[in-house]
Amino acid sequence: MTESLDHPLRIALVDDQPLVRAGFAMVIDSQDDMEVITQASDGAAAVDALRARAVDVVLMDVRMPRLDGIEATAEILARAPEGRAPKIIVLTTFDLDEYVVSAIRAGASGFLLKDAQPEHLLGAIRTVHRGDAVIAPSATRRLLERVVSTPEPAEQDAAVLAPLTDREREVLSLMGRGFSNQEIGAELFVAEATVKTHVGRVLAKLGARDRVQAVIIAFETGLVAPGAH
């Protein structure tokens, strides 16, 4: 199912392997609702390219020469005008790549294995553009758990959760356990539209850019324990 947009989703591909970019471009350009509008072979070229044109979603490789995907992710998001930052999906060969942990912390909206099926790639692009994040696969759950098992100088104080209502805490907890909106609705016996409203309020109150950032906060404040199901 495609989304109703004034224009196709504008996609940027960032990878140092031309064949990888060509393969992704072929898959993406086969869709009516998205198109590849720029490509870059490393992070520095990506930062330059995105200065000149607006994109909706960036597929960002992690390991690249000159400027890697972590630094490029942080720089692109820092330079973007308020409210117009692209969503960034990190691409990796390994589901527990240490570089990806850092990229998620830098603001990426999710990550995808390079050997993902084409339909998963397309679904991930549409998901992050809607404002959700790619967090459902078990590999991503393990990644998020790895994020909070990595010592950080300043862990989140649980006080950050104070503005949340009890129901919003429940919703955040289920998000942290990898539940989709539909699954949260079934668990709490509420409509999916109601769940979307709760998720929106959780993100706003936490100051989280997207679902992944909110889930990281859920782990770091201890609301969800690593390994919880």
Report on this structure.
- This protein is of the alpha/beta class.
- Helices cover 48% and strands 12% of the residues.
- It is built from 10 helices and 5 strands.
- It has helices spanning 18-29, 43-52, 69-79, 98-106, 118-129, 138-149, 166-176, 181-188, 192-206, 211-220, and strands at 9-14, 34-40, 57-61, 87-92, 110-113.
- It has a 5-stranded parallel beta sheet with strand order 2-1-3-4-5, sandwiched between helices.
- The longest helix is centred in the last third of the chain and has 15 residues, at 192-206.
- The protein is globular, with a radius of gyration of 17 Å.
- The chain starts with 8 loop residues before the first strand and ends in a 9-residue tail after the last helix.
- The mean pLDDT is 83.
Defining key terms:
229 residues, alpha/beta, five-stranded parallel beta sheet, 10 helices, globular
Give me the secondary-structure category.
Answer: alpha/beta
Shape: globular
Largest sheet composition? 5 strands, parallel
**Distance linking N and C termini:** 30 Å
List the strand order in the largest sheet. Answer: 2-1-3-4-5
**What's the total count of β strands?**
5
